[in-house]
Amino acid sequence: MNIQNSYDPTLGMTFEEYFGYSQYEEDPHETPEEPVGVVFDADEYDLFKVSFSDAVLSTHMAMADALEARLNNDNDVLRFYSDYTGRGKTSGAILHLGEMIESGQIDRVLFLTREIAGVEEVYRTFKKTWPHINVVPWSTAHRKGRTASNSDLQVSRSNVTRDEAKVAQVVISTHAAGKQWRTRGEYPLGQNFDIVLIDEYPDPVASGQFHLSEAQGLYEKYQWGKMGKQAKAIRDWMSDLQEAKGRLPRPDWAKDIDPRFPKEVLDLAEAVRQGRSFIVTRGEHRSLHWSRLNMPFEGKALLCSATNELEGWRMDPRLTSQSLKEHRGFPTDYSQVKVTFTPWPREPAKVNNAQLKDPYTVEQLQKAIFREVAHGLPKDDGETLVLMPKTLRDSLSSDFLWQLQKSRGQAKVYIHHWGSGIGTNAYQDCRYAVVVSLFHQNAFGIHQKIKGHKLHQSEMIETYGANSKEVTTTKNNEHARHIIQMLNRIRIRGMDTTHSHPYVAKSAHIRWIATPKDTERACGVLETAFHKIEVDRSAVEDEIEVVDDPSQVRGWEQKAKVICNQMEKAGRKSFTSKDVGAEFACGYPKQPRQRQRFRAGAEDLGWTVVPGDGRGKPTTFTKDIGRQPAD
Known about the structure:
35% of the residues lie in helices and 16% in strands. By secondary structure, it is α/β, with parallel strands linked by helices.
């Protein structure tokens, strides 16, 4: 059974090489990687010595109510706490959980964060605030004999033993560790936690895939009795899958699978039964993929996030929209925050993760980033966060990073990437931010998230598609989620205590390098999620994004428009389907429905289409001078 971070024969390379980003899967036999992150080095971690604003104190009271409700509710359903970023969800949880332990109301707490740096931050705060409570951090950076992947991370303890953690009153660990316990069915620190606090969305999707070669190997291993019949049925069904078109009904073998099969086969059958599988086609090969929820201690957990209603939970049929928005308070006023959009480099206009490795693209974006950091921001001592896609971040030269820091003098410049550090306070002093593009996740990863949260939704097994309504909606929500979470890493996450209104965010200036399309997406989120924020998009609003390569657009109708524009630009008034096949890498569509869409795209631009006869005469496209596109 393969996992997504291994070599994939359907892709001809590793999953990460093809898609340009890592998936959420973990191998149940391997320790999942724990993101390291950056620690916020506060001078004071004792929450009893902090002067909180009225807005944060209101959140603390609501958090106390939510924790009490979680403790007193004995059903097996995950509960949520939602409120705006920077309102004090984490500090409120630490304060009330400590009170519950000291009063004898509860005995043990498990606190899960996204990154190792979060473990360190929560540990320091918990230990300083509640010095008489037995608190331990549990991650690869804190455990005795283990080393985190980032040796630069300074931690308070690196010698925690399992025996010590087993009896601790508060264990602080990572999402990855909690999911590993659930996947393996092994809980090395015990299961006797009264409350589990999960800080931020934990990407709880674990996945797998099954290929025809694996089905053949299963059949060769099991050839007798019930298991032999079912192994043959699986092999035959996977063979039929290679020739099938569109959706398929769920196979009978998944309904009564023999429990003696390996766990991987049982997981496959369960996913098929529950409607969590989907078909992936690469070239001539088709494989079956699936996703599933992997949440530890669901019946004891309270999940705290500013974006619950935008995350995968919204697709879980057991949850209501209201349950994802519980406790959300008065909206933050961002009237002191300004966002200025600046044009994406005209050449090359590449935003996908895999394309951002291109040397020329990196060079052009380095110039654009330097221009904004060095010349687009005020010359003062304000710290700056530069946010970009991970693929671009990993491609920046060390010399460029040095020059970028030098351009701001003594003011610190932090280089970070989308999706990492959600929930961290490490950049909360940044007065400025320079943002590059958006967090672009492809339809495959989106489909995994959809299937992982949905149960029993369809009797058919579907092929994943980039343009389904569900995938499009989820993509838009992913954009919104990351914009809300990542912009709130800088000082706007904090309330301006000098303002007469208790819910006004601190001032900041954000410069955003984006294509016209991404500008539209970002502005839609800013106008909806950031109350009263000032947005200036005048530099890009009239810009038209020109695409010269039809392979860069989705759908045959859009490809036709790009090709027709190229033909007209070249002065050609007529061309044929054979010309398209010979001159463009995408070729001319083979399926009748695709050809129909191609012709429709050409007709929209005023081209006359004469279909071929199917016996050698190609389809012809002509355009008269002065002919106007159809309305």
